[in-house]
Amino acid sequence: MKVLIVGAGVGGPVLALLLKKAGHDPVIVDKFDPANLVRPKTNSNGKPAPLDFGDVGGGFTLAHGPLMVLRDLGLLHKVRKVSFNETERLVWSRMDGTEIYHWDAVAHKFDDELKYTAQILRSTLHRIIMAEIGEQEIPVTVGKSLHSVDTSNPDKVVAHFTDGTSIGADILVGADGMHSSVRRAVFGDNLHAKPDLMVGYLGVTTYDEKDRWVKDGGYVNFYAQAELQKRLVLCRVSDTQVFWEITEYGTREDTDDHTWHTTTSTALPAEVGRLAESLKSWGAPQGIVDLIARSHRLTPLNIYDAPRLDSFSKGRVVLIGDSAHGMPPHLGQGLTLAYGDAGVLAEAMTHFKDEYRRAFEIYNKLRVPHAHSMSDRTHGFAEQNFPTTTFARWTGEFTMKASSMLFNYLNLISVMSTDCKAEVNKAIGLNA
Q: How confident is the model at residue 432 (pLDDT cuts 50, 70, 90)?
């Protein structure tokens, strides 16, 4: 089947690769402005060079489910070569560095390729995925903004774009993120993502051996000033780089342009200096303040929450990732959910090659309740970790500390990951 995928971020291209492997015919379009591409037109061998959207965004922790998907695509070794692969714990501390609790991050039930997470810059991961898209000769067209979707023909779906062109396909996939045009065009024009009343910044900096938190071991560190509802996350993403995220309750002017824009080089020193001073006033250790002040990349971040959908498909149209279930990043599950969506949908379409209705039925059966559960946990986590009173902070810390002890004792990280093939086989009554 011809599958038109709207969105060339981190989810859509992975789905395209999985569908290509399953014998389908994927095509990708994205609204990204061609003028902002960072690439030569051809490689040295004369083939078109992979699309490069530039150094934007922050980083990801690839949990064991996404790593299984990448291994299935033959890309795991490429990711491991350029990521940080020694994380043992996710540590939650007060802003002054006092540890409150931690989650063990090593999934002991998996083999050596999978048991450790991989932390990687978003732009680095995207380049690996897009290079493979080029190798598999999957068509990608940028500068295509969706105008409308015609679902009146029972035998196909047609996407119309603002440049006056149209593309017909057997299936249309919305992988165009939190502010999905596909979701609004097909599921309801009122289904806009709403601000979560949190704002922040994503940054990247180079560390050296004097940075104490790096020398302490392979951890992802969360620092919270609970009553002030402010948080800092530090995550090592390579042998030399650290990704960080600062969030706090507040508002920033919302616009129709939801594209990430990095802070210009001329404005960068003043902006990171201001953020470093803010961290200092919140009580962060001086070493962390200095780390933030050295940042060489900064991206403003508005945080949104997408409307809850009872189904991720309608007719021949299906949504994945933030298009289907975007939520605030309090638990950092966005990419894990997107790759789980891609893996389950592709596996269902492997079993039911021409029966898209049955494939969508399996996809919805598995992914809708999973996404809703994760959304509930995400909002519950925020309530417990960003309280408004001292008593609520004590209660939240006690609850999280007790639950983390149970989590670590049972090594629940090993059972939280989605094995897409096993889940689909079970859902359709086959042995895994």
A: very low
Of all helices (H) and strands (E), which one includes residue 28?
strand 25-30
Q: Are 317 and 157 in contact (CB under 8 A)?
A: yes
**pLDDT by residue (tens digit) across 78-103?**
999 999 998 888 888 888 888 888 98
Contact 305, 178 (CB under 8 A): no
Count how many Cα atoms sit within 13 Å of the Cα of residue 28 in the half-sphere of its side chain: 28
pLDDT value of position 145:
95
2-6 and 171-174 beta bridge pairing: parallel
Average pLDDT score over residue span 152-167: 96
| Residue whose C-alpha is closest to residue 64's, from 425, 426, 422 | 422
Phi, psi (degrees; rounded to nearest 5) at 176 = -105, 25
In this structure, are residues 262 and 123 in contact, taking their beta carbons and an 8 Å threshold?
Answer: no
Q: Are strands 219-225 and 89-94 parallel, antiparallel or unpaired?
A: parallel
Nearest alpha-carbon partner for 161 in 150, 177, 149, 145: 145
CB 48 within 8 A of CB 134: yes
Residue 278 · residue 201 · CB < 8 Å: no
CB-CB contact of 306 with 325 (8 Å): yes
Please give the full DSSP string across 126-151, using - where no structure is assigned: HHHHHHHHHHTT--EEES--EEEEE-
DSSP 49-66: PPP---S-S-EEEE-HHH
Kindly state the DSSP code that residue 19 receives in the 8-state scheme.
H
Which residue, among 417, 203, 195, has the nearest Cα to 326 in the 3D structure? Answer: 195
Q: Which residues pair with 299 in a beta bridge?
A: 202
Question: Do 309 and 187 contact (CB within 8 A), yes or no?
Answer: yes
Count the alpha carbons within 13 Å of 329 in the hemisphere toward its beta carbon: 25
pLDDT bin (cut points 50, 70, 90) of residue 382 is confident
| Pairing label, strands 317-319, 171-174 | parallel
Enumerate the H helices of 162-305 as residue ranges.
181-182, 212-215, 268-282, 286-293
DSSP conformation letters of 205-220: EE--TT-HHHHT-SEE
CA-CA distances (angstroms) from residue 410 to 219, 400, 413? 20, 15, 8
Instruction: Judge whether 79 and 132 are in contact, CB under 8 Å.
Output: no
The answer to whether 16 and 133 have CB atoms below 8 angstroms apart is yes
d(CA 305, CA 292): 27
Q: What is the b/e burial string over 87-109, where b = at least 16 CB atoms within 10 angstroms of the residue's CB?
A: bebbbbbbbebeebbbbbbbbee
User: Among candidates 322, 417, 327, 309, which has minimal Cα distance to 364?
Assistant: 309
